[in-house]
Amino acid sequence: MDLSKLTIGSKIILGLGVLLLIDSFLHWQEVSFGPVSAGVSMWHGWGLLVGLLLLAILAWEAAQIAGIKIALGPLSPSMVTAALSALLVLFALIKVLTNDYVATWAWIGLVLSAGIAAGAWLSMKAAGESLSDLKTSVGTAASNATAAAKTAAKSPPESSSAPAASSPAPSAATTAETTETGSSSDEASS
Fold first, then answer.
1. Among the listed ranges 14-18, 58-62, 118-122, 176-180, which one has the minimum average pLDDT value?
2. How far, CA to CA in Å, does 125 sit from each of 66, 130, 188?
3. Which of 69, 74, 117, 135 could form a disulfide with 85 if both were Cys (CB 3.0 to 4.6 A apart)?
4. Beta bridge partners of 29
5. What average pLDDT does range 64-93 have in this prediction?
6. In whole angstroms, what is the distance from residue 8 CA to residue 12 CA?
7. Looking at the domain assignment, is residue 15 inside a domain?
8. Enclosing domain of residue 120
9. What is the largest CA-CA distance in the chain?
């Protein structure tokens, strides 16, 4: 695991991702009553989706650093990061715009999420991919998933028509021994 081999995009994603994770626990909404103020962190409402997407991005990047290969159809690892980061920016924007009493930390979080998306774009560029490649790959993955769903819906479920194997009937000798002794083998041993 050589961190010097990371692209600048991956370094940006990880660095800003950790900063956004820290920022997520600060007050994104805040109300002040003189010297007293109260607030809530990002982790409620739309912010929960932002947090889950952030954790997914960080876990995905950590898996890539660790050399874990996860195949997601025609999508490359940098495309997955770009798609997740686009959703991250979208939901962070929704979180900031739909909340009342938005605090400074929410705006900082929105800027950090945009920086993560920029890092994802740089990772795609370093891999020789573009946004049109992402669009094509997502379209291919969606059509493959649709075709698989249609095929699964058309084919009848497989059911075994053969009856289940039944246990053999006790032999006549076993039945005769039980009736002659009138006890089971556990009672005979005691």
1. 176-180
2. 21, 6, 81
3. 117
4. 40, 102
5. 93
6. 6
7. yes
8. 3-137
9. 94
Beta strand pairing status for 36-40 and 29-33? antiparallel
Is 148 within a domain?
Answer: no
User: Cβ–Cβ contacts within 10 Å for residue 123, how many?
Assistant: 27
Is the pLDDT reported for residue 124 higher than 80? yes
Q: How far apart, in Å, are the Cα atoms of 90 and each of 93, 161, 185?
A: 5, 51, 72
* Assigned token pair, 182: 């009138």
Distance CA 8, CA 11 (A): 5
The answer to the question of residue 151 being in a domain is no
> What's the structural domain count of the chain?
1
Name residue 85's amino acid: S
What's the pLDDT at 172?
A: 53
Is 46 within the bounds of a domain? yes
Place of tokens 């982790």: 43
**Where is average pLDDT lowest: 2-11, 83-92, 179-188?**
179-188
